[in-house]
Design goal:
This protein has a domain at about 260-375. Helices cover about 25% and strands about 30% of the residues. It is built from 9 helices and 18 strands.
Length: about 375
């Protein structure tokens, strides 16, 4: 890991961000950019260049980051529960989980991701992401007895997010999980960028009262000075339907538990996409449905196409700095909530393939028409 210290001053619409990189496996400029949130709670956003959320990324680069992060957890005491935070880190978490499975050959691992959707079953726990414009997260009990046993008896909890600025969200999740499983022995944190101070690391360890480790691709510190003249604008509606139906979801990608790598049959989707030779392709996931579309994008890349991947998001971010362009549209989950797609309209793709777990699509969802894209249903 490169231990060369580096200081930066990032000027954003929302204010000035001062940061110091202490050590990094991937250089700062290759790992992330920055932007301004449309959110009075926190003005800045760390925008990953390897996550496949706000910036299009080659699937092979995403896979490389999964491999790098997974190395730290291969020998974690089992059984182990891996939890990823919706929606931004859903794909990252599942990718890391699958790499742990492959590198270790273990079968005592369970993956879950949090969700903003109220399914037709009670949640195992809820926690809050205080700085987000959509604060509530739900975590559901797995449906299969073996998965339930791991959930309730895990010795190690591995929490995955794209970045840690204060650590409060993951800390709150760990506290709630300890109420369910007081026999937990260790909480291991995984992220792309960790901006926590050593004092904050120690504070989290004291509060949890179990073994705590932090693993990341870049470790640093930051401080943000808001611009008092900055007006973030109105916060979009994020109130989902109370009568959300499981039937809207065509596949499960981790809300109800996975015990091994996903192997979706994507070759028929390759056929359905009807791609021409040499075409430059963008594959889009939608909201929390990120990992199966990423696997599809990896398959296309392996077959020789020039492929980039990213997914849509609920997060409103201003154009500027790391955000070159933005599209706003109504979500595909029948919630009527604004969703966004960044850094795409200025790119030159021959084909755009949008991947959905929801069927049918609501009439108000117009993203395929906006992009002239092909819709693929998993």
């Amino acid at each position: 890991m490169n231990a060369h210290s580096e200081q930066r001053l990032i000027r954003l619409h929302a204010g000035a961000l001062e940061l110091t990189v202490h050590q990094a496996e991937i250089p700062l400029d290759e790992l992330c950019a920055f932007g301004s949130r449309c959110n009075p709670k926190r003005g800045f956003l760390v925008i990953s260049k390897v996550l496949g959320k706000h910036i299009p990324v080659r699937p092979s680069l995403m896979h490389h980051t999964h491999e790098l992060l997974a190395r730290a957890f291969v020998s974690a005491p089992g059984p182990a529960l891996v939890v990823a935070l919706a929606e931004t880190a859903v794909g990252l978490g599942q990718g890391v989980f699958e790499e742990i499975c492959r590198q270790s050959g273990r079968s005592d691992l369970l993956f879950l991701h949090s969700t903003r959707y109220r399914l037709e079953r009670p949640a195992a726990l809820s926690f809050r992401e205080g700085h987000s414009h959509a604060t509530e997260h739900l975590l559901y009990l797995p449906t299969e007895p073996r998965m339930q046993h791991i959930f309730e008896t895990a010795r190690t909890l591995i929490l995955v997010d794209d970045e840690m600025t204060t650590g409060r969200t993951l800390e709150g999740l760990a506290v709630e999980y300890l109420h369910i499983n007081p026999r937990l022995q260790a909480v291991l944190f995984a992220c792309l960028t960790n901006w926590l101070s050593s004092a904050r690391h120690a504070e989290i360890a004291r509060r949890l009262g179990v073994g705590v480790e932090f693993h990341q691709l870049l470790e640093g510190s930051l401080s943000f000075v808001p611009d008092p003249a900055f007006e973030p604008g109105p916060t979009p509606n994020v109130t989902g339907r109370d009568d959300f139906k499981d039937a809207y979801l065509g596949v499960d990608s981790g809300r109800l538990g996975l015990c091994g790598p996903q192997t979706p049959d994507v070759d028929h989707l390759v056929h359905d996409a009807d791609l021409g030779g040499g075409e430059r392709v963008l594959v889009l996931g939608t909201g929390e449905f990120a990992h199966p579309p990423y696997l599809f994008a990896r398959r296309l890349e392996d077959l020789g196409w020039d492929v980039h991947f990213q997914s849509t998001t609920r997060s409103p971010v201003l154009v500027g700095a790391g955000i070159a362009s933005a599209l706003e549209f109504i979500d595909n989950y029948h919630d009527g909530i604004p969703n966004y797609l960044y850094n795409v309209v200025d790119k030159k793709y021959d084909r755009v393939l949008i991947c959905y777990e929801t069927r049918p699509l609501p009439e108000s969802h117009r993203l395929p028409q906006m992009l002239g894209a092909t819709s693929l249903f998993f």
